[in-house]
Amino acid sequence: MLHMVGGRSATQAAGSGTAIKPWLSEKTAPTPFQRIAAVFPVQAYALERARVEPIVPIDRYLPLGEPCHYRMIMANSLVSGTSEFCGLSDGFFVVVSDINLSEPLACAISTPDVLRIRVALDGDGEYLPSQDEMLDIRGRSAGVIIEPPNIPPAKFVSVGHHMAVQIIVHRDALQRLYPCDEQLPATIRAFLANELTHRVAKQLNCGPALLRCLEDLQNCSLTGRNRWLFIRSKAVEILCHTFGTLEEEDNIGLVQPSAFIGRAVNKAKDLLREHYVAPPSLDDLAREVGLSRTGLCSNFSRLTGQTVFNFVSELRMQHALAMLNRHEVPITEIAYAVGYNYPSSFTVAIQRRFGASPRELRRRVPSEP
Q1: CATH code at 74?
Q2: What distance in Å separates the CA atoms of residue 219 and residue 333, rounded to the nearest whole number?
Q3: Which portions of the chain are predicted below pLDDT 50?
Q4: Fewer Cβ close by (within 10 Å): the C or N end of the chain?
């Protein structure tokens, strides 16, 4: 689930510090495909001002003892479940969520000078930093997003059940955690030195170590200060595992001959065409074609002009379009047939690709004789 940490617009941040009201109330809950701009200025990350201003309605806040540590309870037509927000220090926050979105929620989000890590046991959605990139957040997944200042907002779409933890760290807070950056991955060093010029959005290997951290957070029975300290320890552990993964990718290198790479990418395309309904993970696909995960992603984009995820998405969209021409096939059945576990996710994908809902597309095409 996406939360607004601090929840202050640039205009609000420049104000006199009056009480901040949620951007959306129950009466103005987002409708499907509504796009909501969420901008996080530097001032929003001060702990004494930290308050989660959600982009979905919250029914009740339950304090958990420490300042800036509480649980949000949701039971309304758009969202149900709980999210726990824990402020650890200025610019260092954790959100642990177990929620259900009944409708697709789309928004535009910008978090300048911030590193975000998401680890999920379950989820359904996509993070789109640009037209040519996509971070898949379906099922068990992990990803890291690092944003320098002054870049366009990214698009975020989510729906269904989400069980996840998000670690949100401002660059200033990360510098306090790592005053010496010699052993950090190159991407993190560039971020800390304010030398990053583009948004980084990477899928991580969602291995046992990261999933164990999330399970520990979900199952934690501690209260008060002990709970706060436990959450802090797990947040730091997730940071360390993430940086270890990024460092491994930095050290892989792309040394395979170009002819071999071309054959590997073509083999990957053939496998994806055959298994687009349930495509292999990036790790499995890379292993199958004989490349590293980083080598596969980099060379696939270079040689095809598309990311692996975009390639699969386009295959699904073209098959779906052909099936929509057959008016006797229910739209829900088409969604499942092309690989979407939730019809609502299929609707979001069709809307984004063709600018119209599946029903609208079907009405435009005469039925086959």
Answers
A1: 2.60.120.10
A2: 36
A3: 1-43, 46-47, 49-52, 252-257, 369
A4: C
